[in-house]
Design brief:
two-stranded antiparallel sheet, alpha/beta, 8-stranded mixed beta sheet, globular, 189 residues, 10 strands, binds guanosine-5'-monophosphate
Length: 189
Amino acid sequence: MKLLEQRILTNGKVLPGGVLKIDSFLNHQMDPMLMMEMAKELKRLYADAGVNKILTIEASGIAIAIMAGYEFGCPVVFAKKSKTKNISDNVYSVEVESFTHGKVNTVVVSKEFVNPGDRILIVDDFLATGAALIGLKALVEQAGATVVGAGIAVEKVFQGGGNLLREQGMRVESLAMIASMDDNSLTFC
Ligand code: 5GP
């Protein structure tokens, strides 16, 4: 998606460790007009997939997910990073290693909000190693629901997660796909 690529080139900052900072339009200050265009593109890509629910993970996936939910006309559920080890029976849970924080979170979603028969589009801001997406997929499968695919804002292709998941049969659509990046250059696929 050219609009997003242009914005990354203009406002993105490459940090050490393969991290892209897009705090000025997606991860801290947010640009709803850009996000609405991204949501429309996700709707176009998954128009015929029978999506009835969107799932994301807190916190940075929520904004784009809610815009997508508006476009699809469906509810948006966000998986929570649980603060307690005392997990109730009423949740599905999975361990997910955070790429940016380097720690393992227990991620939970209420059984009330993900149901057998749901056709779920997973939405997130970034795809790097694929850990978040693999975790969210596992939550959906615990519920007996179906992942129709993933809609990602920025995929860092060089970190391998997207292609790993595609090889496993998951449909993954990313609006900007970064082939490589360093302090001086950033190249899209
Ligand atoms: P993965 O689990 O695929 O390794 O990483 C995806 C998650 O880590 C996303 O939910 C996102 O919040 C975070 N993340 C991964 N890479 C980046 C990055 O370059 N910049 C930012 N801001 N977040 C990232």
